[in-house]
Amino acid sequence: MGSVMTPEAMREFLATLLQGAAGETRDHWERAIGPVEKLPIHLNLHCNWRIRPKASKRDMRAIEHAVALVRTEHPYVAP
To answer: Hey, CA dihedral for 69, 70, 71, 74, is it positive or negative?
Structure first.
């Protein structure tokens, strides 16, 4: 398992990954991703974070793919 990031660091990581993989600016992706929400770990054992993106269909596909990849190494965020 990788290191544990803060919710804000996770958002920045996802935005940077998407910028490199799908184009657009990091600000574009940060707006599309929205905040990373930390969930109670006792109710979410496999992963304690989620996002609720607001984006176009194309961007949603890219975000969903990035999240699936990132969660394999970073399933948890720190407080």
So the answer is: positive
- Longest CA span, the chain: 37
Give counts: helices (H), strands (E), the chain.
3, 2
* Mean pLDDT, the chain, whole residue set: 94
Domain range annotation of the chain: 7-73
CA-angle at 57, arms to 16 and 14, nearest 5°: 15
User: What token pair was written down for 55?
Assistant: 């984006």
* Both structure tokens of 27: 């600000």
Please indicate, yes or no, whether the overall pTM of this predicted structure exceeds 0.85: yes
